[in-house]
Amino acid sequence: MTGRARVRDRRRVLILVQNLPVPFDRRAGYEVHIICPRTKDFARRRDLINGIHIYRYSAGPEARRTAAYLLEYAIAISAQLRLAIGIRVRRRIDVVHICNPPDLLFLASFPLVALGARIIYDHHDATPELMIAK
Questions:
Q1: pLDDT tens per residue across span 67-88
Q2: Are 112 and 96 in contact (CB under 8 A)?
Q3: How far is the C-alpha of 109 from the C-alpha of 15, rounded, in Å?
Q4: How far apart (Å, rounded) are the C-alpha atoms in residues 82 and 98?
């Protein structure tokens, strides 16, 4: 099998992250794209690190009140949806890995699921610690 054929046959994964920027991630054997917020430490909109395609969006201010959370999540989900569709236009996406919190990131995956992608819902933050931090 040629190198080009191996690349074409790889599974493609999109990871949605809302609460942290992503500098590094390794998913052996997969073509990985990650959408996450930009920060002052990770300010580049696009990165390619160790073969991982990273797309960062401007997250806006961090919420402290209920109405601000709605705005924060609306900004994040709309930015992730826009970037996810842009990736999907260029590449097939087989799996969408949603990193929780927030629980609403599945909204950005709806068009991808409609086009055949599967979802992995990764609940990796405990709620009490999140509430204390917020």
A1: 888 888 889 999 999 999 999 9
A2: yes
A3: 10
A4: 16
